[in-house]
Design brief:
By secondary structure, this protein is an alpha+beta fold. Among the domains are: 109 residues, no CATH class; 51 residues, no CATH class. The protein is 50% helix and 14% strand. α6 runs antiparallel to α7. The N terminus and C terminus are likely disordered.
């Protein structure tokens, strides 16, 4: 990893641990067994000791070993998820997050997204020659150079997706439908009728009568089990 990313990672962890007031966004990072201490039942534990007291996570995902909600010494509530090391089976890795609403599997899934960011910076600096192809001190020239490099990456990523990814926009739409499953079709239908009635009250009398007439004809042609969910006001003249 480049030194700049190491520096950023250090500053990020330093801000979380030593400046609680700076936490206004969710922080998620991998922590090491260093001088950080975690509060458990009034005791200050290191990361290794925290692993021993953390409850074992039971489930089908064998990569998740343990998980515990605790506090950093400054009093910051965090959750630490211990996962199995891929190459060293007898060792583990620890992921820390300030979002206590997440499940252990969700913490791992969110952290994996960071890898794409690491690949992006590595590709931009090593292959697309960010900071190497052009030398300048003017702000506008630096922005222009960075924009050109990022545009190259977007084109290459799009070309790679076209040649390797079999997913379609239809599949993406089907996947996003799961996110709106909480909106029941009856609620959506009621909102639609109420919206039409609201629009009808804001226009002229002739148009209002026309809208209400068309709406009533449409409702009259619906099955009775659907009519039962519609507002009574929508059926009145």
């Amino acid at each position: 990893m480049p030194k700049s990313l190491h520096k950023f990672e250090f500053l990020q962890q330093y801000s979380v641990i030593n400046h609680p007031k700076m936490i206004f966004l969710t922080i998620q990072l991998m922590v090491k067994n260093d001088n950080k201490r975690y509060l458990v039942d009034g005791k200050r534990l290191c990361l290794k000791d925290l692993y021993t007291v953390a409850p074992i996570v039971e489930g089908k995902n064998r990569n998740v070993l343990r998980c515990i909600r605790t506090q950093l010494v400054p009093g910051i509530p965090v959750m630490v998820v211990f996962i199995r090391h891929r190459s060293k089976k007898n060792e583990w890795l620890a992921i820390l997050t300030t979002d206590l609403t997440l499940l252990p599997q969700e913490v791992i899934s969110h952290y994996r997204m960071r890898w794409d960011i690491e690949v992006f910076f590595k590709c931009a600096k090593s292959l697309l020659r960010l900071q190497k192809e052009f030398q300048g001190r003017l702000y506008d020239s630096l922005v222009s150079h960075t924009t050109i490099v990022f545009s190259r990456y977007i084109l290459l990523a799009w070309q790679h997706r076209q040649s390797t990814d079999q997913r379609t926009l239809g599949g993406l739409f089907y996947h996003l439908c799961d996110e709106v499953s909480s909106l029941d079709w009856t609620v959506a239908l009621q909102q639609l009728v109420e919206l039409i009635n609201e629009i009808a009250t804001k226009v002229g009398k002739k148009i209002t009568k026309l809208i209400q007439s068309q709406l009533q004809q449409w409702i009259a042609g619906l099955p009775s089990y659907i009519k039962a969910y519609l507002p009574v006001l929508s059926c009145e003249s």
